[in-house]
Amino acid sequence: MATQQDTYDYTLRLADNCLILGQRLAEWCGHGPVLEQDIALTNISLDLIGQARNYYQYAAELTGSKKSEDDIAFLRNDREYKNLLLVEQPNIDFGYTIIRQYFFDVFHFHLLNELATSQDKTLAGIAQKSQKEVTYHKRWSGQWVFRLGDGTDESHERTQAALDHFWPYAFESVIPDTLDKNMTQYGIGADLSKIEEIVKKEITNHLREATLTLPTETWNQTGGKNGLHSEHLGYLLAEMQHLQRAYPGAEW
Amino acid sequence: MATQQDTYDYTLRLADNCLILGQRLAEWCGHGPVLEQDIALTNISLDLIGQARNYYQYAAELTGSKKSEDDIAFLRNDREYKNLLLVEQPNIDFGYTIIRQYFFDVFHFHLLNELATSQDKTLAGIAQKSQKEVTYHKRWSGQWVFRLGDGTDESHERTQAALDHFWPYAFESVIPDTLDKNMTQYGIGADLSKIEEIVKKEITNHLREATLTLPTETWNQTGGKNGLHSEHLGYLLAEMQHLQRAYPGAEW
Amino acid sequence: MNTIDLEKEFQRKLDAEEKIEPKDWMPDDYRKTLIRQISQHAHSEIVGMLPEGNWLTRAPSLRRKVAALAKVQDEAGHGLYLYSACETLGVERDELLEQLHTGKAKYSSIFNYPTLTWADMGAIGWLVDGAAIMNQVPLCRCSYGPYARAMVRVCKEESFHQRQGYEIMLTLCNGTPEQKAMAQDALNRWWWPSIMMFGPNDADSPHTAQSMQWKIKRFTNDELRQRFIDATVPQADILGIKIPDPDLKWNEETKHYDFGSIDWDEFWAVVKGNGPCNKERLAARNKAHDNGAWVREAALAYTEKKRKKTAA
Amino acid sequence: MNTIDLEKEFQRKLDAEEKIEPKDWMPDDYRKTLIRQISQHAHSEIVGMLPEGNWLTRAPSLRRKVAALAKVQDEAGHGLYLYSACETLGVERDELLEQLHTGKAKYSSIFNYPTLTWADMGAIGWLVDGAAIMNQVPLCRCSYGPYARAMVRVCKEESFHQRQGYEIMLTLCNGTPEQKAMAQDALNRWWWPSIMMFGPNDADSPHTAQSMQWKIKRFTNDELRQRFIDATVPQADILGIKIPDPDLKWNEETKHYDFGSIDWDEFWAVVKGNGPCNKERLAARNKAHDNGAWVREAALAYTEKKRKKTAA
């Protein structure tokens, strides 16, 4: 059976993905390419941070302590964040942001499908509540992959560059590690081996339809799930945590 | 007579200018346009942070407490930093960095000339020790103003843009406020009214010789000396203070 | 109808408090005044995203981060309503944006001040949105229909934002001494710019009379300013922080607060472009627009390709 | 002299431990080997600025900030000496940089790992510079004069850096439990990459024999690796942190430490380009170079203008 610690660790991964990607998207707010898409980016950020809160609240419960969602979200060090490397990568431009988002959305969508039937009722509940939002995210980013991939020469080129850049980060999500496998066995975690093929197929078909060239590289950057991050995360956290760190114990 | 608090506040301004500009220059390290200039930028950063340490150590003494240079350098909030707005502005590109540096160096050079005869022996000593370094800084940035201003069309254009951009920040340094005036009267602070003309004349002559067009704007951005900063400083501090804040009380 | 009849009909509607609608005849100057005012208002919403946007990534709790994101997003939405309202007057959004980006169009000067601490998120909600509401509630009864209806939606959300801002201030004022000092500092910095938001004194506001006659405006600048001050002073008292005006005091006779004289030199300097952040705000908007050009082009090109395919 | 005499004279110098100097005759392959090795070494210094550069703005004290800046600056200086040494062999710095930027030239794979915490600044100094010194001290006796002399200067500074790194680790290990954990974590991550720095096992290192014959290299990879491990284990013991190798133990017979087998798959993956930061490191160098183009051009143009003026 899953220990409380297992479930806590697993929940943190879910939470951190949502928070860190939400944080990256929040950087766009006020700087989007057109007002409607500025709103859309912020909307997805809001959804993800909302979902993150649900997970963190559950994680806080699981600690059995007085820890709050904010204590967990803000007061860990860099090595204790368990998000995928993909979601912490910088925005760079709208094309990079879309490719990053699309990779995450496809995974996220199928992950939640699995999680929705988790034997952990809380996680199943959060997953179910999130499905509608994430369906929308996937549709939005997927549409933009089409528009950018099959838009102008410039947009095609930029989006291809983004695709090549993020390709090694695309599938860390579906490579199970020990915790993933154990949580699957306990009937709590999503079975990544079940969704791996679906995710890869959906992504590759979609990219082809968007007239993009699939990179031939097969190597995956991994480590995020176990707190081995890129150098980008530290800066993101320094910024995100600044007030919590500078005014310890204050209520906001 | 100057109170301990006056001297402390005045010393902080000197220290913060050096630290914050040193921090900005440190961002260049490893990213300079050519190896020799990478080294030069780091060198100036090192000099300035070294000078900052002298001032902070004196400031720490003046508090009469157990505060260390690091407590003062790292553990104040954004509104408590007293550096000029100029020095906290982002690097943008090498041209902007050079214009920012040159404006500061000319002021700094003449400031130290005055401070070197301060009745406050510690400040006078620090100023004297710093003069050689700052003479070199001014020569270096001044030379680069020539090279960039009178180099290629592109470099001229970029440098003119940088000049126009930083012009409103150029002379906050020589506009005395109450503390400046009081400290001058006590025989401790530099007499800004004495150096204002020299600084302006030197800068304008130099810029003209570099074939740059002097902006006609006469309006000055001010506030830094009293802790009213631009939005850039907060991010710089969040990054700079991160470890000090995240591990309170730790020794490094 | 001839021009005289059209003018009469226009006047009749104004007198009867009927709305002027896009297809109705209206005097050229009425149209121009509305375009200027609505587009300035729209631009203010868009530029207004920047100062608060500055704290989104540094919001100190998840709850506050979500609320702040939603608020800035609402401002984008207000921008959209208002650009749409403006388009009903026959001017395209692109043209309006062009005016903003080249510095030809104005936006509210308040957004040329920097947000230096988290407390500014409170102060902006409380004071800036508070002042905005004071200005905007009467606009819900503006004679031009599309503007009036946009303002109904805007005002509903703004008053939510204002409460949210006040609540941030309240939390800070009930917090640690450092937090309360942060709140006081924010009030010190935002007070005067906020009361300048109502514009010059009536004597120096030449357009006011015409706008009131057209029932675009319903109250003068000074009337609105006084209302705002009267409403805000007791709120500051509840917070336990002090409005930075030594001349501020209750006047038993007028039943209003008297207040000190406003530094109109600062106001005009900022309007003219010499505020702490004018250049940065405009640069940020231009950068977003320029960096977005290829995205907008791609979306158009893709739609065109799809259209051709469907047509073929 | 004819070729045979030249070869004899070259060999005589090698045998007599006399230095080969730039103007001396040398075999083509000797020259090529040196160019490859010295330029790789120079590139490693330059790319090596990036991982530590990552913590300059976040150094936790002023003293550490100054020391870290000076250290990274020293690496730039080493890069300069080494590019100069390489230029004595008839190849320009620009050409070498071009090889780096296009990915044609290699640099030490260790710099393709990220610096994740402040403790990495300690671990890099202690382990990476430690390993580098082990490699480099014998190079002070390298048969090629300019390289040997550059290495004398480099080694002096490197050993200072190594002490500085160790001192960072010592401070962390004597600090709070969190700091000690940070130090242990850094050791865990940097240990294996550090001992891979000595290159493949001798059996898989085809160039070693020739390089030793030419007295470019003085020891084999495995010999140097063993020395490094023997020197480093007791240092870890003093720190009170554990080297992440369960097979590591003192061998009374050999008087050396035995150690576990190295994951050469990881080594070759990183060499081939699939390390955590390969792309970022190269991108950072390219970006710096590209963004600097207009600056270098301006400097040239200005010098040219001055020259013409002086000539006129």
Automatic annotation (TrEMBL), chains A, B:
Q: Which Pfam families match?
A: PaaA_PaaC (PF05138)
Q: What is its EC number?
A: 1.14.13.149
User: Main EC class of this protein?
Assistant: oxidoreductase
Q: Does the keyword Oxidoreductase apply?
A: yes
Q: What keywords tag this UniProt record?
A: Oxidoreductase
Record's keyword annotation contains ATP-binding: no
GO terms for MF: phenylacetyl-CoA 1,2-epoxidase activity
* Entries under PANTHER family matching the protein: 1,2-PHENYLACETYL-COA EPOXIDASE, SUBUNIT C, PHENYLACETIC ACID DEGRADATION PROTEIN PAA
Gene label: paaC
The record ties this protein, via InterPro entries, to: Aromatic_CoA_ox/epox, Ferritin-like, Ferritin-like_SF, PaaA_PaaC, PaaC
Q: Which SUPFAM superfamilies does its entry note?
A: Ferritin-like (SSF47240)
Any idea what this protein is called?
Phenylacetate-CoA oxygenase subunit PaaC
Automatic annotation (TrEMBL), chains C, D:
- Keyword field contains Mitochondrion: no
Q: Which UniProt keywords apply?
A: Oxidoreductase
Q: Which residues form the signal peptide?
A: none
Tell me, what's a Pfam family for it?
PaaA_PaaC
The cross-references to InterPro entries, in alphabetical order and at most eight, read: Aromatic_CoA_ox/epox (IPR052703), Ferritin-like (IPR012347), Ferritin-like_SF (IPR009078), PaaA (IPR011881), PaaA_PaaC (IPR007814)
Question: Does this entry carry the keyword Oxidoreductase?
Answer: yes
**Stored Gene3D superfamilies:** 1.20.1260.10
Known EC number:
1.14.13.149
Q: Any transmembrane segments, and where?
A: none
Q: Which domain of life is it from?
A: Bacteria
Q: Name one GO molecular function term.
A: phenylacetyl-CoA 1,2-epoxidase activity
Protein name, entry field: 1,2-phenylacetyl-CoA epoxidase subunit A
Native organism is: Reichenbachiella carrageenanivorans
Organism placement in taxonomy: Bacteria, Pseudomonadati, Bacteroidota, Cytophagia, Cytophagales
Gene name per UniProt: paaA
